Structures are given as C-alpha cells and as structure tokens.
Amino acid sequence: MMINQQGQGQGDCATEILVRQFRQILVWPLQLTPQEGKITATAYWERLLSLDTAWQEVVDDDAESSVDLRERRYAEFVAFTPDVQHFLYGEGQAADRAKAQSDRPIRTFRRCDVATIDLVLRKGDPTLTLNVERIELYFFYDVDLAVLAVEIDGSDLSLEQVQEIMFRFGRAYPNSWDANGNGSSCCASVQLRSHEGAVLATSDYHQRERYLDFVSNHLSPRVADHWSFLLQPLMPHHGSEHGPILYRQLEHHRIPMLAYLAVDDPYRIGRDDWMRLGLAARPGPKGLAPFAAGFLEGFEARHCYDRFWDGQRGHDQTATRMICSGRAFIMVGEADNPHFTNAETGILSQFRHQYFLLGLIAHFHKAALLIVRDRLATAMSQLQNYSATTVKRFKRESRLCHVNFLRFTHRYWFQEVSNQRPAQDLFKLWTHHLGTERLFVDVREEVLDMISYLDSDGLRKQANTVVRLTVVTFFGLIGTLVTGFLGMNLIDLTQVSFVQKSLYFVAALVPMTFFTFYIAAKSQRLAEFVDTMSDERQPIRVKWRAFVHVWERGR
Hints:
By secondary structure, the chain is an alpha+beta fold. It has 18 helices and 14 strands. Strands 1, 2, 3, 4, 5, 6, 7, 8, 9, 10, 11, 12, 13 and 14 form a 14-stranded mixed sheet that branches. A hairpin with a 2-residue loop joins strand 5 and strand 6 (143-158). Helix 12 runs antiparallel to helix 13 (388-412), helix 12 (347-381) runs parallel beside helix 14 and helix 17 (523-533) packs antiparallel against helix 18.
C-alpha cells in the first residue's frame, strides 16, 4: 500500500505525525425508484444479475476458504445477535447453500475493475495514489434501497493529508465553487484507474455549468462523473438517460464514512486534531479548534467512546480511541501494536467487518425510514382536488406505505445488534447521532395518523351508507305495506296469459325501481327530515320546513 507523492518528500517535519496505515470506507445509501411500477424491491438485484456489467454477486463458500478466513468470518458472525445474523447472513444448512444464498435478506455485488484512485486534494498539491480494497453494492429484500460501499487504503500519510482526504473525498457533488471555479470542499481531481493503469473515470467538480444546468432542468443535484461511473448501470432518476435501475439521493452531498488510522504514537494527537478527525473537518492550524468553543463543549462525552483509551496508558488493553459523530466513525490506535494492525484477527479486521456492518445497519435504518417518509409525502402530494381517481390512488399508496413500514419494523428494526458491549454501546451512539430512533417515532406517528384518517374516513362513509339505506328502507316500507295490503286479490291475474303477466310485472317494476332510486338520491335530505321529525322538541313549522327543503333545488 504505497503512496505516490509527486514532488514532495515524506517526513519533512520531525514532529509531523505520520499515519502508517489509513483506511476509509464510504457508505452511501441510495433510494431505488421503480419504473412505471413494473419492478419490485426483489427484482432490482435480479435485473442487475441479468445485465452484462462489472458487478458480480458475492457468494461465500466457507468450505473452500482458508482457516484464517474462516476464523475471521466466525468472529464476525458471532459478534451479532441471532436476529441480526439472519438479516446479514440468511438461514440454511451448508448442504443447501444455494438456497441459503438466495434467501438472504441482503444481496451483495462487487466490482473489481478499479484498482487505484489518484487524488489531488487541492489544486497544486501532489497526486496521492491510494489502493481500492473493495467496491460493493448492497441490496435489501423488500426495501427500495441500495448502499454503495467504497474502501480505500494508504500508508505513510501525514495526519494533515488524512484529514484532507476524510474532508474532501466523500463528496457526491460540490455545494459551491471557489473564485477559481473549483468545487468547494471537494478534491481538485479524482481519477479511477484499472489494474493496467488506464483511467476509467475522472471527476468533474470544476464544471460548474453542468451542475447548475442539471438542477435547473431536473430540480435535483447532479452526481459527479466518477461516482456515476461506479454506480453504473444504476442511473439517476431525474437524468436525461434512463437505465435499467434508477436511483435518487436521500441526503446531502457528504457521503457517510468510517476511517481507520494507525499512527506511531496516538497520544501525540492534540485535542483540536481529535475534533477534526471525529467531525471529519478540514485541517487547520495547530492548537486552534475547528469550530466555536460553545459548539465543541462536551465533545469527548458526546462523541468519544473511550473504553480502551484514557490518555495516560493506564490499562492493559490495546490503546484504541473511537469517535462517532453519526456521519463519521473514526478508529485510531498504535501502528506498532500487531493486534491493532492485524487484518485477519486483529482490530483492523474488526473495523473492516464488524464495525463496518454496524455502520451499514445504522445507515440502512435511517435510509429506510426516510424512504417511507418520502412515500408518505408523495402520496399526499398526489391527492388533487379530492377527485375519485386521486383519492383512490392516495388510499392505495397510504396502505402500501403502512404495509412496508410494518415489514421494516418486524424484519429489520434492531434496537440491539450485539451482545458484545463495545459493539452494543457504539451502535447506540451511532443511531443517537443519526437521530434514527427519533425518526422512527416520527415516521411511525405519521403512518398511524394516515391510517387513522383512512379508517375514520371509511367508517364515516360506511355510516353514511347505512343512514341512506335506512332512509330507503323506511320510505320503501310505506310502499311495501300499501301494495301488500291492496295486493290481496286487488287484481286477479290468474286467468291472464303469461305475456299479460309480464306486462303487469314490468308496469309495477319500472315505477318501483324509479321510486327506489329516487329515494336513494334524496336519502341524505330525507335523513335530515326524518331526524327532524323524530325530535319532539321541534315545532310543526320547523318539521314542515325540513320536509319542504327535501325538494328544493341547489341545496
């Protein structure tokens, strides 16, 4: 894992803190959108499997794996509670591995065509070449969601360079531009290279007009070229080109991330740099905090998980400091400690697998809830002028949202994911900073309010129908009693022909049918009249007025 620093030597400053090993994993949730209602959540990965792309489904076969790899997977597996194990790995016997793979709630795809990434952090800076360890795409059963995971690694970087990478690399698009036309807070250049060194994609943060035109035309931000390349054949929902799978962004331009730093002496890192790392802020002058003192008050209590860190080396555990601010999770430890840097059974392995999966679940929870909220808002926006068509569509979409929310709650909503205390504590800290529990409560109340409205509206219509039928029955009873009384031998039809009987039947059927439908049409007014008649406190004048109002026009 070598870094190519063109035009700059390493370790120019004797007091410079070097990051011997650096890992960064971006976790980018994206909402998938169906095309004309013809694709379901399950069909997204089926569609991807049918296409000739760089993505290949990941199929684990532990029986053919090395002992070290199987041990690493075992440690990863037992780190989670049984319900989370079913979510992450599925169920099934080893003899029926194909079925177990197909029944997994998560389907993972991987592409291996990108080998390295060339970063120019700021215009005029040297080029940093970092390795690409994995590019994976996760689909979830019954949820219109995909998560892109990109892991890069480097070695012998200065702490300032690491801070710049964490601050600049994970940008889906620029939020503004500087005086020179470069994307603010973005890398000056990002190039994806193949194993042969060929350039596969290059960033276009500096092309301001393309982003401005896209927002003007589609009212949606444009994704940078190198990210669009990695996502293909997934295409933006609002773009001019429609691919086989469409997506839209759920949150803003900063992609959530995890970072791992192995340094010679983490105790030399100052408080200001801890804050910059934990909040993924840009580097700054030594001794100066990245934000105002009031905002940073209680930073350690709110963001730092110091179970294995006391600043005084006063314990026998591997010195590890973990910081979580929701969108960023940082792990820092000693580069000369084999347990911290072991990629198979050490803390580095835990970071790349157990803690990555913690972050995946945390961001999946929030993204899935945001999708439900978006669907509720879309269903409400389609309710136009209370027309029959839009009301019917609104009811169908609202009940579908309710069903999807119930499925998510019973299948995927884990408040505890591990019996291991550090993972348990960090997941709670992670979800707290993401605001997931509060979002869950809000979405649940919105869904229940919508269903309560639909149920009350249905009960109101049902009650109204019962009233109308009661009125029709009430007034129809008059005709039934009269015709029943007078019909006794009033007209002797025993001697007439069948044709005459049919004519008499039609002659009676037509006026009675007209009478029934007329009474049904006037049932609401007649119900008001009957209600007034039944009120003994009302005088005859009021009751007569209520009767007259039944036949008035334009009421």
